[in-house]
């Protein structure tokens, strides 16, 4: 599943680099399927994706609503642009927390 990427301005310290794939549709940024806390599954309806300068932000709406301090992934783009995003944990296994029971 892909979704458009939007842009706004807010500073953040990146968790790590954004991962990309080249498909028949062009360059896609890969987004983790779990929130930074490992509690919620991220989908097109459960997160907000936006870009600032050289950082891609993926906000878990449930964690943000619960005022959880770690509700947003911040991934450095190093200036790369993607027209769409896809969800996949595989490239981010080093950043993901174990799932909560």
Description:
- The protein is mainly beta.
- It has one domain (2-92).
- It has one helix and nine strands, in the order βββββββαββ.
- It has a five-stranded mixed β-sheet with strand order 2-6-7-8-3. Strands 1-9-5-4 form a four-stranded mixed β-sheet, with no helix packed on it.
- It is globular and about 35 Å long.
- The termini are far apart.
- 23% of the residues are buried.
Number of domains: 1
Fraction of residues in helix: under 10%
Number of strands: 9
Average predicted confidence as pLDDT? 85
Low-confidence stretches: 6-10
Topology (SSEs and partners):
Elements: E1 2-3, E2 6-7, E3 16-17, E4 19-23, E5 26-31, E6 47-52, E7 55-60, H1 61-65, E8 72-76, E9 84-87
Parallel strand pairs: 2-6, 3-8, 5-9
Antiparallel strand pairs: 1-9, 4-5, 6-7, 7-8
List keywords for this structure.
about 100 residues; mainly beta; 5-stranded mixed β-sheet; 4-stranded mixed β-sheet; globular
In brief, what are we looking at here?
The chain has 101 residues and is mainly β. The chain has one helix and nine strands, in the order βββββββαββ. The protein has one domain.
């Amino acid at each position: 599943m892909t979704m458009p990427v939007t842009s706004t301005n807010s500073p953040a310290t990146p968790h790590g680099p954004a991962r990309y794939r080249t498909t028949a549709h062009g360059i896609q940024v890969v987004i983790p399927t779990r929130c930074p806390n490992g509690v919620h599954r991220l989908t097109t309806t459960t997160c907000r994706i936006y870009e600032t300068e050289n950082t891609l932000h993926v906000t878990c709406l449930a964690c943000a609503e619960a005022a959880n301090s770690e509700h947003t992934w911040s991934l450095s783009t190093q200036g790369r642009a993607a027209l769409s995003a896809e969800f996949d944990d595989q490239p981010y296994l080093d950043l993901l927390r174990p799932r909560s029971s």
